[in-house]
Write a structure and sequence with these properties.
Number of strands: 11
Largest sheet: 8 strands, antiparallel
Oligomer: single chain
Order of helices and strands: HEHEEEEEEEEEE
Helix content: under 10%
Strand order of the largest sheet: 1-5-6-7-8-9-10-11
Shape: globular
Structural class: mainly beta
């Protein structure tokens, strides 16, 4: 379950440190079988943010491996801007998309549990006036609005 509170992002998440962001690319996922018994799709504790972040030669994120089967990849008009581990242990991936015929872009937060299941998706309008939350655990969609403090609050909710 994903709860949205009216607090800043820095209060509810822990970003990658500069050292982790500049780490050399690791190309093999769960390559060390001597880590002990892995249950399900559990990740080793030494993976930053509970996920494997692979960067290309320029330092841009190429893909994020959240579990053995869930890979979130960047593309020509799709950039992975941030990877964050949330307090509940979930991994949030910020994807920025550049629209083909416009100069504007949109950003989407995708929230995954450590088994690779998408739990929620948060997308905000390009002008920053409102957002939408799709909660796949509760099976509902919420319209969000920014508060004066910069947080998000739910202003309308419907079941899907």
């Amino acid at each position: 379950m994903v709860a949205i509170k009216s607090v800043s992002r820095s209060e509810v998440s822990q970003s990658l440190s500069a050292e982790e962001k500049n780490a050399p690319p690791q190309r093999r996922f769960l390559q060390n079988t001597q880590l002990g018994s892995l249950q399900g799709d559990a990740l080793p504790a030494n993976y930053p943010c509970g996920a494997l972040v692979v960067r290309d030669a320029t330092g841009q994120v190429e893909y994020v491996q959240v579990s053995r089967w869930r890979r979130v990849s960047a593309g020509p008009r799709r950039r992975i801007a941030d990877v964050v581990r949330m307090e509940q242990g979930n991994v949030a991936v910020l994807i920025e998309k550049q629209h083909e015929k416009q100069s504007s872009s949109s950003s989407v937060w995708q929230v995954y549990d450590l088994d690779g299941h998408m739990e929620a998706l948060v997308q905000c309008s390009a002008d920053g006036q409102f957002g939408v939350l799709l909660d796949y655990c509760l099976r509902d969609v919420s319209r969000l609005s920014y508060t004066r403090e910069g947080g998000l609050q739910v202003i309308e909710r419907r079941s899907i």
